[in-house]
Amino acid sequence: MGLIRLLTFIAVIAIIYFLIKRWLNKPSPENRRVEHDGNMVRCAQCGTFVPDQQAVHAEGKAYCSQAHLELSRRS
What we know:
alpha+beta; two-stranded antiparallel ribbon
């Protein structure tokens, strides 16, 4: 009877441990998926997809940032 009681105690402790660990490691709002409206476009410099509304457009091309637009103009 003592072995069953010990195994039950270990199982309860493990369940409590995993529940607390899960509760403490909830994803922050920054790590959640971002919903967007509209189309995705590919950056002409690095190939990353960004929402069309957030992309920097110049010379008929889309860029993920102003820095990549400037890098593209230098090359």
